[in-house]
Design brief:
Length: 490
């Protein structure tokens, strides 16, 4: 067998089918002595993952707190109004005093582009790190299972409870859990709708049974989906319904850092037994086959079988394995974040030298700079001038040439504007605007404008003119639009 074949054989997954229920010893300590609860092997039913502490678990809770803050987001006020409001009816998006109108929809496109490439870049670097820490479904499942443990006990107890036939005692245990689940699911659906309308008015309509048809349907659908997916489907969403789990293979490579089992150090796995005098001790690796890495996995993946699409890169198996290694006086890191190339003896290039990361980062940088530029240069007023083309011009009875324009003014502020139009570009120019317009926040007003120049003062068939729109209530708000005045050809 060649060296390359030997390496392939060393990294080929080995299926574990042995029992874990033997009464065995680990360095003169039983599994009970080191605090390991033996759970039945997953048989395709509900995955009841154990919950243990550790740095990756702590990081998951820190990230989860961000999503949980979304429950209070609709109630944050800014200058007396809702700070974050996606007002679809009026086609306005309010974000802490910044109003984005359809004319600035490209900014939303830049936001979506940035986060789409961020997802791709993070996957190329660290696999399904989005799923493990930042996905709202992962967070909601984590909260639901945490509550389940509070109401029904540890995984072993829950497995036994699920196996029991329905009874009044079982119903009493499960009912409080489901009521709390339904409350969280309802608040999730309600909070989502509250981002699209005033949250306090939404509560008033709810309490007075005056919810709109679409509001009621949306809240109920989101409540049902949250309750179903986070409470019952759980890992099935991650493994069978989420398309990201299927396409991640095309976004990762042998340089992607993911939770990986060190086969060279761990195999052959097994539990150390006390050796009788004269008996030869078996040569075993550091893995004591306690299955803690499997028991804590929220998707039921056995990381020792190699990297799999079901792994959401949460790192909980690392916390579990490090805890066991510490208890049996062995070095940590049997399972750790690592790339396949590391185990093959290849050096990993720096992140900034990986081609796909460079491409992703470059596009992200472009989107970020475009977004920042747009926000910095976003004017409080937007002016568009449409010139009438039929007819191109009209000769009046006094010999002047008249052009007609429509001036459309968009108010991007939260205050009513009183706008006036002025025209510059020719010494003998006169203009007539049909009105001084009051423009409501986020709305568009149209002002008809007539510009006249004596025919004998026109030296060219067309000439540029500047149309200036200013707010009479705020002298700092004004905008200039360059248009064209047409006259007869000589």
């Amino acid at each position: 067998m060649s060296d390359s074949d030997s390496k392939k054989e060393a990294y080929r997954p080995k299926i574990h089918t042995g029992s874990v229920l033997d009464d065995v010893h680990v360095e003169s300590k039983t599994l009970d002595d080191i605090g390991v609860e033996i759970l039945p092997l997953h048989t395709g039913g509900t995955v009841h993952a154990k919950r243990i502490g550790g740095k990756f678990r702590n990081f998951k809770w820190m990230v989860a707190s961000f999503w949980l803050l979304l429950f209070v987001g609709p109630y944050i006020r800014w200058n007396g109004d809702q700070a974050i409001l996606w007002d679809l009816a009026n086609r306005q998006f309010h974000i802490f005093g910044l109003t984005v109108l359809p004319q600035d929809i490209w900014m939303l496109a830049m936001i979506l582009l940035f986060f789409a490439l961020l997802l791709a870049a993070s996957t190329a670097i660290a696999g399904r790190v989005w799923c493990g820490y930042f996905c709202f479904h992962t967070v909601w499942v984590d909260v639901f299972t945490w509550l389940e443990e509070k109401f029904e006990g540890k995984p072993g107890k829950r497995i036994k409870l699920d196996a029991e036939p329905m009874s009044f005692a079982k119903f009493k245990i499960k009912l409080p859990k489901h009521l709390v689940w339904l409350f969280i699911a309802f608040m999730t659906g309600f909070s989502f709708v509250a981002y699209f309308t005033d949250a306090f008015q939404l509560w008033a309509r709810l309490l007075n049974f005056q919810l709109g048809y679409y509001e009621f349907i949306t809240i109920m659908v989101l409540t049902g989906l949250t309750y179903l997916t986070a409470g019952f489907m759980r890992e099935q969403v991650c493994m069978g319904f989420c398309p990201y789990s299927r396409i991640q293979g095309a976004m990762t490579d042998t340089e992607t850092v993911m939770p990986t089992y060190d086969r060279d150090r761990g195999e052959p796995r097994g539990r150390q037994r006390r050796v009788k005098p004269g008996e030869e001790a078996p040569v075993l690796g550091d893995c004591i086959d306690c299955r803690m890495c499997v028991d804590v996995c929220p998707t039921g993946v056995d990381i020792r079988l190699g990297q799999q699409f079901g792994c959401i890169t949460c790192g909980l198996c690392i916390d579990a394995c490090d805890e066991i290694m510490e208890k049996v006086n062995k070095p940590k890191g049997l399972i750790r974040y690592a790339a396949i190339n590391e185990f093959a003896g290849k050096a990993l290039p720096p992140i900034w030298r990986r081609p796909r990361v460079i491409v992703y980062s470059s596009i992200m940088t472009f989107a970020a700079f475009a977004l920042i530029w747009g926000m910095v240069n976003m004017a409080p007023i937007d002016v568009t001038v449409l010139k009438e083309r039929a007819p191109l011009y009209v000769q009046m009875s006094d010999g002047t040439i008249q052009n007609k324009y429509e001036v459309k003014v968009v108010n991007k502020t939260n205050e009513v504007m009183q706008v006036e139009v002025e025209v510059f570009g020719h010494d003998d120019l006169i203009y007539i605007a049909d009105r001084v317009a009051d423009v409501s926040p986020g709305s568009v007003s149209t002002i008809r404008l007539f510009v006249r120049i004596p025919r004998n003062k026109l030296s060219e068939p067309s000439m540029p003119i500047d149309i200036v729109v200013k707010d009479l209530r705020n002298k700092d708000i004004r905008d200039r639009y360059r248009s064209v005045f047409h006259g007869p050809s000589y």
